[in-house]
Amino acid sequence: MVAGAVGNFHTAQWNDPLVLEMLRTREQNAKKYPGDYSHVFRTKSRWDLIRISFVVMGMEFAYSAETAFVSPILLGIGVEHQLMTLVWAISPLIGFFLAPILGTISDRCRLGWGRRRPVLLGLSITLVIGCILVPFGENVGMLLGDLGEVIPESSVNVTETLRSNQDFYDHEMDFKWAIVFTILGTLLLDFSADTCQTPSRAYLLDVCLPKDHGRACSTFSIMAGVGGSVGYAMGGINWDNTTFGEMLGGSIKTVFTLVAIIYVIGSILTMTSFREIPLPLLEKDDLLRPLTESAINAERAKRNPQIISKAFTESSKDIATVESYQDDSDVEEESSAMSLTDFLKSIFMMPKSIAILCLTNLFCWMSHLSYCLFFTDFVGEEVFKGNPAAHSQSLEYQLYLEGVRYACFGMAIYSLACSCYAFTIEKLIKVLRARIVYCGGLLIDATGMLMMALFPNKITVYVFSATGGIVYALLFTMPFLLLGQYHAKGQFKVSRSNGEAAGSTASVDKPERKRGLATDIAVVGGMIFVAQIIVSLGMGSFISLLGSTTAVIYAAALFSFLSAILATQVVYMDL
Predict the structure, then answer these.
(1) 477 touches 217 (CB < 8 A)
(2) What is the percent of the chain where pLDDT is above 90?
(3) pLDDT at 206
(4) Which end of the chain is more exposed for a tag (fewer CB within 10 A), N or C?
(5) Is the pTM of this model over 0.70?
(6) Which DSSP helix (H) or strand (E) runs through 4?
(7) Can you give the three-state secondary structure of 51-67, one letter per residue?
């Protein structure tokens, strides 16, 4: 570990005449290219940031439909609780290994369209396919020979029994192919929705100046909250008797179809917002590279010797050495290709600052996933006393569906809270500092989840869902804002043999090689896959142990508390 005294990179330094001159030089140079990449070196307006973030709004529409309805869909076609929770583990298991690889591919992509958008396009295609398969898997199964719900012929007065207050369990289910295609759709949708976040975040940071990263991350979270709140509210509407519902075959199919359309529109708006600078041009032209703090310091160091050289010409050889070192270091690190061995090291031999950030992010995601993946099932069973395994026309099943729709509005509240908190998080960081915002928000959520678990009713599921929005805003903001700070300030470039610079206050890790931003975003963001594997494999047994789906809310409270403790150890630089 090394330390280096660093000023506030987001405020005073960007008013430095040298920095303004370097920006003007880069902007003018970028205009010379046929694609005109000068926008990369200009401050982005709030509308610009919204355009870049439209894709995450679409992701959240997809994510809201997935978390609200996949569990009820699987339970409704005969999948048991424990098997249903295991289904949620398959996608993150795949994603844990593929997402960092996709991040590295994104860092090294040499297409003229850029590095991030080609990966984002591919994942968007698989996400839309998943959106179609999840609700229509039952229809595909019927085409392949599934019988669906089968009521024995010996049952009499079936209609009267279903309409009465009696339970009706004497029925069989034949959904073999439906289960296969629904699970396949779930895997594609879940993997793509989670993995899309890496290239979309990297694209956001690539086309913005480092000083805009705070506003960019907060805008990203706001758009995520808007997408989630509207998406969940859309899921809470009973579409059965509407024109769309009758045409598409029910509420759930209508919701997923609308989500697919909205996602396509959002992804197109994002991918056509700003051009990326292709990697070959970045390697060829130093002035197209991002204006990081290390680049500023290198230019300042180069100019200082030039001033000195006018008075002391005899030191020209030493000056040339300094200039060569400063100029070449960025070029070498930016263009060096990462081998498979180096890539694996970036995951398993990460700097301490990223390791702590990963662990904190892991427990944050475990809390959030415990809440969001099983919340609709919790409300349907524990609050409304419904039964997802009952016949589709029985009173208990109708109560369960009513609870699921009611829970959708609760999750809309949590998404709205996410947007509100994300809108203020940058100002909160300036006033309270990042450590208090991060730790305090997680403690608030832990308290809210505990109260919901202790007192499960229609009021508490709405009131305390708002605390879940705080965690989601933090998940979308803090880890990536910190990563942007680490890379902008040369966190993984500077190294000193004595382990600490004189008079320094900020921690800086000693690297073994260049770490790409998208790779680090994938590694930290990839904790969602680890979290989902842990939660999915363990939650079924935890529910069985407690004998109630209230277990998922207790788990969310515990994980938030543990992540708050870990957040006290995160390296915050000077945020």
Answers:
(1) yes
(2) 21
(3) 86
(4) N
(5) yes
(6) strand 2-4
(7) HHHHHHHHHHHHHHHHH
Q: d(Cα 213, Cα 39) in Å, to the nearest integer?
A: 15
Structure tokens at 86: 């295991």
Q: What angle do CA 314, 320, 326 make, to 5 degrees?
A: 140
Helix axes 213-236, 251-271, angle to 10 degrees: 160
Beta bridge partners of 506: 4
Task: Please choose, from the candidates 358, 385, 389, the residue with its C-alpha nearest in 3D space to the C-alpha of residue 75.
Answer: 389
CA distance 52 to 202: 11
304's CB contacts (< 8 A; 6+ apart) are: none
Instruction: Give residue-wise pLDDT tens across range 50-71.
Output: 999 999 999 989 988 888 888 8
Give kind and range of the element (H or E) at residue 174.
strand 172-174
Backbone φ and ψ for 476, nearest 5 degrees, come out as -85, -15
Listing DSSP states for 359-370 in one string gives HHHHHHHHHHHH
Question: Looking at residues 505-531, what average pLDDT do you find?
Answer: 65
What 8-state DSSP symbol labels residue 277? P
Cα 180 off chain centre by: 27
List, in sequence order, every beta strand (DSSP E) within 382-540: 506-508
Report the candidate in 58, 92, 56 with the shortest Cα–Cα distance to residue 369: 92
- pLDDT of amino acid 322: 40
Tokens of 5: 């005294």
Q: For residue 117, how many other CB atoms are within 10 A of its CB?
A: 25
Measured in whole angstroms, the distance separating CA 165 from the mean position of its chain's CA atoms is 44
Residue 255 in contact with residue 239, Cβ under 8 Å? yes
For the cut 80, the answer to whether the pLDDT of residue 348 exceeds it is: no
Task: With CA atoms as reference, report the closest residue to 354 among 146, 224, 511.
Answer: 511
Phi-psi region of 242 (alpha: psi -120 to 50; beta: other; left: phi over 0): beta
Whether 89 and 530 have beta carbons less than 8 Å apart is answered as no
Quick one: 166 exposed, middle or buried, by C-beta within 10 A (0-12, 13-18, 19+)? exposed
pLDDT at 554: 94
Longest Cα pair distance anywhere in the chain, in angstroms? 106
172: β partners: 150
Determine how β-strand 506-508 pairs with β-strand 148-150.
Answer: unpaired
Tokens of 382: 């524990």
At position 199, the amino acid (one-letter code) is P
Q: For residues 215 and 6, what is the distance between their CA atoms, to the nearest angstrom? A: 21
Kindly tell me the burial class for residue 345, based on how many C-beta atoms sit within 10 Å of its own C-beta (0-12, 13-18, 19 or more). Answer: middle
